[in-house]
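Deviation from plan, reported transparently: guanosine-5'-diphosphate complex.
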Amino acid sequence: MKISSAIFDCSASDLDSCPDESLPEFAFIGRSNVGKSSLLNFLAGKRELARVSRTPGFTKLINFFTINESWRLVDLPGYGFAEVARQDKARFNEAVNEYLMQRPNLHCIFALIDSGLPPQKIDVEFVEWLASNSIPFVLVFTKTDKVGAARVQANIAAFKEHISECCGLPPTILTCSATARLGRGELLAVLKEAVARD
Ligand code: GDP
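Because the crystal trials were delayed, the predicted structure below was used instead.
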């Protein structure tokens, strides 16, 4: 897929302020610092795409971008450590929770995970939560340039092992590096197929 236009649509602080449900949505989420802004800019071929999401005041909002006038890329707020320590782990952000659980035109979550780290509890719990709520997701391992290829593969294998019990079929797994400019084609191919499915 070629991204010919990527236009900031709006920001929402709750489900009610999300845009109309006419376009399929594909949402990106991950721990703060996972490389989400870099990946979104790399994906869209626009330096400034995720800038709006990083502007103070916008970081806790759900940011919508219309791509090729046919689907929406949704930038969800990053999850941090403190919030997840709370008792109900899924409630790390009420707006995100509602969006993930109730948005009818949400087609797939792209869950970003740092490939340079062994499985982090917060990421495993989030993916388990997606699976237990039957929310479709793809795992995207970021920053593959940071450690050697063998370490990346070992971290991915360990993550798969951690989630194997909760997920029926093994999920689609993608790898990317915004720094080394790798993985864009594969990610766009998965998006293209998912958009075409609707
Ligand atoms: P966000 O908080 O998830 O939006 O993450 P950012 O895109 O702001 O990136 C967080 C940090 O990781 C920054 O210092 C980036 O330069 C760095 N980073 C992002 N992508 C990559 C990557 O592909 N490789 C490496 N080595 N560093 C990256």
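The first helix runs from residue 36 to 44. We consider this an acceptable substitute for the interim report.
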